[in-house]
Amino acid sequence: MKNVTDSFVSLGHWPPAGSFGLNTDILATNPINLSVVLGVLIFFGKGVLSDLLDNRKQRILNTIRNSEELRGGAVEQLEKARARLRKVEMEAEQFRVNGYSEIEQEKRNLINSTSKTLEQLENYKNETIHFEQQRAINQVRHRVFQQALRGALGTLNSCLNNELHLRTISANIGMFGSMKEITD
């Protein structure tokens, strides 16, 4: 502590004017040098420092202003994107609903057309079966008629002799003659 007070006491002892000396006492010279340097810096550096601070302040304000403008643009784009998203979601829902209703309609149409086609095929099948039955019946009738005719002709040829033949012809002529008299 004594060294500190001695250094302040030694401030009163300046070397005589005309002589230049170097004071090696650190505690005595340091606060003086610092105060002189700070005084010179404050006096001369005040303008430079205020200019630097003003420039820095302007850059910060410009950056904040630009950030606010960018944020405003981003908010606007976000709102537009949200509106587009809502619109697209509504359209997608509408397509989904319409798609389901169209699918159901197509399903009903397909079922109806298939049902009609099956009904027509059933009718064609029944008509074909009926036609084939009629044709088979007609063929059987024709064969039966031919066989009966052959059998009758065979029986007539085997049983009919000349005398029976002449009597049958005479009887038929007689029937025609009596029919002619009745009509006259």
Features:
mainly alpha, 184 residues, 89% helix, 3 helices
If you had to describe this structure to a student in words, what would you say it looks like?
With 184 residues, the chain is mostly helical. It has a domain at 35-157. 89% of the residues lie in helices and 0% in strands. The protein contains three helices and no strands. The protein has helices at 2-9, 26-159, 162-183. The radius of gyration is 68 Å and the shape is rod-shaped. The N and C termini lie far apart (187 Å). InterPro entries: ATP_synth_b/b'su_bac/chlpt. Belongs to the ATPase B chain family. It is a single-pass membrane protein. The chain crosses the membrane at residues 32-49. It comes from Callisthene erythroclada.
Number of helices: 3
Q: What's the Cα radius of gyration?
A: 68 Å
Question: How much helix, percentage-wise, in residues?
Answer: over 70%
> Please, what is the oligomeric state?
single chain
Low-confidence stretches: none
Shape: rod-shaped
Could you report the average pLDDT, rounded to the nearest whole number? 82
How far apart, in Å, are the first and last alpha carbons? Answer: 187 Å
Structural class: mainly alpha
Q: Biggest sheet, open or closed, and with what strands and sense?
A: none
- By DSSP, the count of extended strands is 0
